[in-house]
Design a protein that fits this description.
The chain is of the alpha/beta class and 471 residues long. It has two domains: 260 residues, 3-Layer(aba) Sandwich (Rossmann fold); 197 residues, 3-Layer(aba) Sandwich (Rossmann fold), CATH 3.40.50. Helices cover 42% and strands 13% of the residues. The chain is built from 18 helices and 13 strands. The strands form two sheets. The chain has a seven-stranded parallel sheet with strand order 3-2-1-4-5-6-7, sandwiched between helices. A six-stranded parallel sheet has the order 10-9-8-11-12-13, sandwiched between helices. Helix 3 packs across helix 7, helix 11 packs across helix 16 and helix 16 crosses helix 17. It is globular and about 65 Å long. The relative contact order is 0.12. Bound molecules: uridine-5'-diphosphate. Uridine-5'-diphosphate binds next to helix 1, helix 13 and helix 14. GO terms for molecular function: UDP-glycosyltransferase activity. Its EC number is 2.4.1.-. This is Glycosyltransferase. Keywords: Glycosyltransferase, Transferase. It comes from Carpinus fangiana.
Length: 471
């Protein structure tokens, strides 16, 4: 009998995707049987498609948690992280009985926002691991946050200097994530609550590896601050990315169109599961793409002036007509030059295709890893969560991205600037340098994931412990 482990992602595709990849790797490469606990409350169309049993390997079983009624606890105004945390808390109420029904488990692997599981697993004597799905740099920041919270009185964004995370590159206050920009809001309290509970884990898995983030990696391993605070062992096991298959007619069309384009010639524009632009910004982006005269594929979403993550909980569900919100005549004028896919596109397949030359990305961590794993340079367009920190790292430390400049006083990136960066990344000398760097990392990514590579071995060490317990 194989060891049996349960995996529990928090709501939102950006969390479900990497936890599902971990589940698949455990089943396919490490001889573990996995029950994947699926939070069904407010599950999006795209989430339901992703977890369709036909696409999953034998040995990986999806178990739907009963939907919770959160209608009286959230409203239209509730911010994304608060909504996500309330959803998780309510959905996890039956967790104890679900786990008991599964029989003997060697471990539960949870996402950061499911820490209610620690007490339950303690009662049931199940070791609980956290899969921290963003970067190592962001883990270093998050482990430092409780200290920052204790030592600093003002808002962090009012600090006179960048935040010096021990041993790491200082974080500019402009890059701080939305959730810590105002310490009075619920989102801040939820974030702090969950990171405060990180030390309760038996271990922390990370979706990254040393070659990508050498400085933060060293800091977490060796800096006296991280030696002193209670911190479980960290296991870098990345980059784990999803592998798409063409499932819809639109996916097939997209690939057929890519097949006809020259290599490295197409820009893919995708803003993650939640990303949306304001109406003014979307107009500038469309004009900028058209003026660049480069080939493109755009995943298009209805603009929102209220939120930069308007589709986070409804991804794949906002069936829309791009004609109604793109500049008049855009689709006709760019016919043959570009493809516009409404709502959701086969991102990983597009990035893997040899015709794709660059990625205009919101710098979500999964998108970042997908781009690097396929050796694709980026135009960094951060929108929400910790994406500004990711973007700065990609531009200034990793050297695989360019960040367009926002027009002073206007709050938007102008069409001329978009034209400039798109040409630069696809055709310019700087673009070539970024592509070379991305390709070096691609090779290193393959190496670390293969048998004998550091990420493979990190995960293998833990699964061997589970197997030993199971005997
Ligand atoms: N994604 C996709 N098609 C889309 C938009 C997103 O397949 O049109 C996938 C993308 O490949 C990535 C995930 O959704 O795996 C987005 O995760 P990320 O961490 O980049 O951003 P988030 O959605 O959490 O903001």
């Amino acid at each position: 009998m194989k060891p049996h482990v349960a995996v529990l992602p928090s709501p939102g595709l950006g969390h479900v995707i990497p936890l599902l990849e971990l589940a698949k790797v455990l089943v396919v490469h490490h001889g573990v049987q996995v029950s994947f606990l699926n939070i069904t409350t407010e599950a999006s169309v795209a989430q339901n498609q992703l977890l369709h049993p036909h696409t999953l390997p034998p040995g990986l079983r999806v178990i739907d948690l009963p939907p919770a009624d959160i209608s009286t606890l959230v409203s239209e105004e509730t911010l994304v992280l608060t909504r996500l945390c309330i959803n998780a808390e309510e959905s996890l109420k039956p967790l104890k009985s679900v786990l008991m029904e599964l029989g003997k488990l060697q471990a539960l692997v949870i996402d950061l926002f499911c820490t209610q599981a620690f007490e339950i697993c303690n009662e049931l004597s199940i070791p609980t691991y956290t899969f921290f799905t963003p970067s190592i740099s962001f883990l270093a920041f998050s482990l430092y946050l409780p200290t920052l919270d204790r030592d600093v009185d003002c808002e962090f964004i009012d600090l006179p200097a960048p935040v010096q995370v021990p041993g790491c590159t200082p974080v500019r206050t402009d890059d701080l994530l939305d959730q810590v920009r105002n310490r009075k809001i619920d989102e801040y309290r939820w974030y702090l609550l969950h990171v405060n509970r990180l030390p309760m884990a038996a271990g922390i898995f990370l979706n990254s590896w040393e070659d990508l983030e050498p400085v933060s990696f060293k800091a977490i391993r060796e800096h006296p601050f991280y030696q002193k605070i209670p911190r479980p062992p960290v296991h870098p096991i990345g980059p784990l990315i999803k592998r798409d298959a063409a499932t819809t007619e639109s996916d097939v069309e997209c690939l057929a169109w890519l097949d006809e384009q020259p290599s490295n010639s197409v820009l893919f524009v995708g803003l993650g599961s939640g990303g949306t632009l304001t109406a003014a910004q979307l107009t500038e982006l469309a004009w900028g793409l058209e003026m660049s005269r480069q080939k493109f594929i755009v995943v298009a979403r209805k603009p929102s002036d209220a939120s930069a993550s308007a589709t986070f909980f409804n991804v794949g569900g906002d069936v829309n007509d791009p004609k109604s919100y793109l500049p008049e005549g855009f689709l006709e004028r760019t016919k043959g030059v570009g493809l516009v896919v409404p709502s959701w596109g086969p991102q990983e397949l597009v990035l893997r295709h040899p015709s794709t030359g660059a990625f205009l990305s919101h710098c979500g961590w999964n998108s970042t890893l997908e781009s690097i794993t396929h050796g694709i340079p980026m135009v960094a367009w951060p929108l929400y969560a910790e994406q500004r920190m990711n973007a700065t790292m990609l531009v200034e430390e990793v050297g695989v991205a360019v960040k367009p400049v926002v027009e002073p006083g206007k709050g938007v990136v102008a069409r001329e600037e978009i034209e400039r960066v798109v040409r630069m990344v696809l055709e310019g000398e700087e673009g070539k340098v970024m592509r070379r760097r991305a390709r070096e990392l691609k090779v290193k990514a393959e190496k670390t994931l293969n048998f004998g590579g550091s990420s493979y071995e990190s995960l293998s060490r833990v699964t061997k412990e589970w197997k030993a317990q199971h005997l």
